[in-house]
């Protein structure tokens, strides 16, 4: 079999969620629970695209897998596999085509029916950049709401080593992509729903509720009128094998960027939380909305608010590993953390940092170390603060977090896409993530860089939260309408 693409969206920090389901006359509705963001979740969304491979143990050629380890979708639903039925919490992911699960126990391996001759006894090794995991192909009935899909082929991946830690409590992915992108020649579950005449209409739709209630909904075989306003704007899929559409223009503050004069495309991906795009363009957006590196911002705040006090305490002889605890920015003795930061600072001269459980604590500990080093060199206070502020500005943000001034959100520009000759606006409230962290709220940009071709975008949950989205398989098109 020739190489194909499988976009797999990992949710590294999700919780198993209860899902209400219903089906009437070939329409199934599945309630989706929403995970609440925190800074650790944001850090887990580091943007990278690592290439691995999938091959059977006989060594024959297999598929190329592009791992989406940055996507951390917020919305999850529940399905059942086998008889007796076992529950699995999954992401409904239009960016991939396979159903795969990684159960927390091994009982599914005994419950799966025997595979067809073409798959019998086939084991798989899957390489995801962070290591190799082993698994096998299974085939059994799958329950999605009240829809019972017969003889669905799926991948069972074993939980082991770092893979088990990365999956947290998530059980897998239900891919809603096309057969051309399916690994192992497995028929995607949505295709089987259609072929087995389980749905009235050959389409499914997403509603990612943004109105305070945590639940969203995916509807198979129909469209729920109460989840959108007005009419959908439909545009054709322009690349067979992916839910990809043409984008005619991209605007910041209602001004065209001129980036799509030779054409742009976007993959509409329910397994992605953010809007991802070419780094140069995303950096321009983040500059326009005043987004800065999260660690840079927090480091500067600590120096501005606590720098004088830190200086005085160091001059008085207080040990660096106790200072941040004394002024209330850390809640541990800091000795081990500080020693790690000292090593990093000395070797990297401020270009890296050890990530602690709290950004402000980490920034404080770094600043103390930097000040202490400069004091030992008998530098003046003015020179020390100048040095420290420059190091704050030079800190890398390896996880891609970008901080925004929450108080300035009302003054930030709209960011817009023109799709199907219609303007789709995103307001600051829609593209800014507000993350509570203790008594502080951080505002994070929803635009993230991704190493993709300069004309390609990934429209994830941020866009789909603003616009109810219909994936029309029968007519090979996608529709958007303002979410209700």
Low-confidence stretches: 1-24, 45-72, 106-121, 126-131, 333-357
Cα-to-Cα separation, first versus last residue: 44 Å
Structural class: alpha+beta
Question: Helix share of residues?
Answer: 10-25%
Average the pLDDT over all residues and give the rounded result.
75
Helix count, per DSSP? 12
- Percent in strands: 25-35%
Please describe the biggest sheet, giving its number of strands, its sense, and whether it closes into a barrel: 6 strands, mixed, barrel
Give the number of DSSP strands: 30
Rg over CA atoms, rounded to whole Å, is 25 Å
Give the overall form.
Answer: elongated
The order of strands across the largest sheet is 6-7-12-8-11-10
Please characterize this protein's 3D structure.
This protein has 484 residues and is of the alpha+beta class. Helix 6 (294-315) runs antiparallel to helix 10 (381-394) and helix 8 (335-348) crosses helix 9. 46% of the residues are buried. Mean pLDDT is 75; it is low at 1-24, 45-72, 106-121, 126-131 and 333-357.
In short:
With 484 residues, the protein is α+β, with helices and mostly antiparallel strands.
């Amino acid at each position: 079999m020739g190489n194909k693409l499988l976009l797999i969206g990992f949710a590294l920090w999700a919780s198993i969620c209860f899902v209400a389901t219903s089906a009437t006359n070939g329409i199934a509705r599945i309630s989706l629970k929403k995970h609440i963001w925190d800074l650790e979740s944001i850090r887990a969304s580091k943007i990278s695209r690592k290439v691995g491979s999938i091959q059977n143990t006989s060594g024959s050629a297999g598929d190329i897998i592009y791992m989406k380890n940055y996507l951390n979708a917020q919305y999850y639903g529940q399905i059942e596999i086998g008889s007796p039925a076992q529950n699995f919490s999954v992401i409904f992911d239009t960016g991939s085509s396979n159903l795969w699960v990684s159960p927390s126990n091994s009982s599914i391996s005994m419950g799966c029916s025997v595979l067809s001759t073409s798959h019998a006894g086939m084991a798989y090794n899957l390489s995801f950049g962070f290591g190799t995991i082993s698994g096998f192909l299974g085939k059994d009935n799958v329950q999605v709401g009240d829809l019972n899909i017969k003889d669905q082929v799926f991948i069972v991946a074993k939980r082991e080593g770092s893979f088990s830690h990365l999956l947290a409590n998530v059980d897998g992915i239900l891919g809603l992509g096309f057969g051309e992108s399916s690994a192992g020649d497995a028929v995607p579950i949505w295709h089987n729903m259609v072929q087995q005449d389980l749905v009235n209409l050959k389409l499914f739709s997403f509603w990612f509720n943004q109105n305070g209630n945590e639940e969203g909904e995916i509807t198979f075989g129909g469209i729920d009128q109460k989840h959108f306003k007005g009419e959908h704007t439909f545009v054709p899929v322009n690349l067979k094998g992916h839910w990809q559409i043409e984008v005619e223009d991209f605007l910041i503050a209602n001004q065209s960027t001129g980036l799509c004069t030779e054409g742009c495309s976007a993959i509409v991906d329910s397994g992605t939380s953010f809007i991802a795009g070419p780094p140069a363009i995303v950096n321009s957006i983040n500059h326009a909305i005043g987004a800065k590196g999260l660690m840079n911002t927090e480091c500067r705040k600590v120096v501005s608010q606590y720098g004088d006090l830190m200086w005085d305490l160091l001059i008085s002889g207080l040990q660096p590993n106790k200072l941040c605890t004394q002024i209330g920015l850390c809640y541990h003795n800091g000795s081990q953390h500080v020693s790690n930061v000292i090593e990093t600072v000395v070797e990297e001269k401020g270009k890296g940092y050890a990530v602690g459980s709290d950004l402000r604590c980490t920034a404080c500990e770094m600043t103390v170390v930097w000040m202490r080093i400069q004091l030992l060199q008998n530098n003046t206070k003015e020179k020390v603060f100048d040095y420290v502020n420059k190091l704050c500005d030079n800190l890398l943000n390896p996880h891609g977090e970008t901080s925004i001034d929450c108080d300035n959100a009302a003054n930030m520009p709209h960011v817009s896409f023109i799709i199907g000759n219609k303007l789709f606006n995103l307001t600051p409230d829609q593209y800014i993530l507000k993350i509570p962290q203790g008594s502080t709220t951080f505002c994070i940009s929803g635009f993230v860089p991704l190493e993709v071709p300069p004309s390609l975008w990934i429209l994830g949950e941020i866009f789909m939260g603003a616009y109810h989205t219909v994936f029309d398989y029968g007519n090979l098109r996608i529709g958007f309408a303002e979410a209700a």
